[in-house]
Amino acid sequence: MSDQNSTALPPNPDELAAELEQAFTTGTLKTQLATVDRLTATGEEGLNALQTYLLDSEDSPPTPARGKIYQRLIQAENGAIATLLEATYPDGIVTPQSERDVDYQTLQDALIVQDYLTADRLSIQLLCELVGPAAVQRKWLYFSEVDKIPIPDFQTLDLLWQTYSEGKFGFSVQRKLWLSLGKNFTKLWERIGWRQDNNWTRYPNSFTWNLTAPQGHLPLSNQLRGVRTFEAILNHPAWQTSAP
pTM for this structure? Predict the structure, then answer.
């Protein structure tokens, strides 16, 4: 008979580190995300393994799995971990690229804490800023203005969304779904949850502002003004070249 009063041994740090390394070397994104969840659940030992991995891979490009590690470490509210993160990643793990000297930090801050409603509103503001004063004043884009958005800036917006959403959200995610559906917008609306039973999803309360949302649910585009602006976004050359 097992001793019910015995104390379980703490996780082995070396084994946790090895599991994490293997997941990030050979595992799929799904496996990587699940590994981050499992290590987080083990407590301090798991958080230390995640911290070590993130700090040791400082030169690696941002990915949804690395973004999730960063978010989990921030959520842990551990003073020692926070100090190390501040020294290595003071602004987050994405270094924005901009041809127009646009500041993406407020957006990155919102996405890190998964405040997706604020991030969505900031994204349209930033797109308008990239287009020019007239768009900023009217607070939305004409389809003919989308090509004015520089490739590095569009890719930065998309990278921020993907990195801090486990890869679920972003313009390029929406484009992949659109292409897989034969560029059929009616099917796309249904797939990403913007239209249900022939009714447009009502903004903002009927949209889903967390990771239970369908793939590609965010960021939003104003379809009340027609499909042409969103189509221009999905056809932007940013998605046909390498990300920054």
Answer: 0.93
